[in-house]
């Protein structure tokens, strides 16, 4: 995984079945802005986008987010 926490969050969401356009829409960014975060061209999201992206990992997500090393069922 990446050293950048935001890149890691995006990669984990993608690995758990989210699509880039879904993540971008959920956090209020353009898909291009999210791609820039994923590639490291932008270091971190600003304001509410950061809060919403973080909450996708810790709150009750639409899909189950499994971190590496966790066991359980796969997301739908």
What does this structure look like?
The chain starts with a helix and ends in an 18-residue tail after the last helix. It is globular, with a radius of gyration of 12 Å. The protein has one domain (5-58): 434 Repressor (Amino-terminal Domain), CATH 1.10.260. With 76 residues, it is mainly α. It is 53% helix and 0% strand.
Q: What brief labels describe this structure?
A:
mainly alpha; 434 Repressor (Amino-terminal Domain); 4 helices; globular
Describe, in short, the structure shown.
Helix content is 53%, strand content 0%.
Question: Layout of SSEs?
Answer:
Layout: H1 5-15, H2 20-27, H3 31-39, H4 47-58
Helix pairs in contact: 1-3, 1-4, 2-3
Total beta strands: 0
Percent of residues in β-strands: under 5%
**Into which percent range does the helicity of residues fall?**
40-55%
Broad shape: globular
Element-by-element helix/strand order: HHHH
Provide the low-confidence segments as ranges: none
Major sheet: none
**What would the CATH topology be?**
434 Repressor (Amino-terminal Domain)
Q: How many structural domains?
A: 1
Oligomer: single chain
Mean of residue pLDDT values: 82
The CATH architecture name reads Orthogonal Bundle
């Amino acid at each position: 995984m990446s050293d950048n926490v935001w890149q890691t969050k995006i990669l984990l969401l993608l690995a758990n079945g989210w699509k880039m356009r879904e993540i971008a829409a959920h956090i209020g960014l353009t898909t291009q802005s999210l791609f820039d975060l994923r590639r490291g061209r932008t270091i971190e999201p600003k304001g509410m986008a950061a809060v919403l992206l973080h909450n996708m990992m810790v709150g009750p997500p639409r899909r189950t987010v499994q971190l590496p090393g966790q066991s359980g069922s796969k997301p739908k």
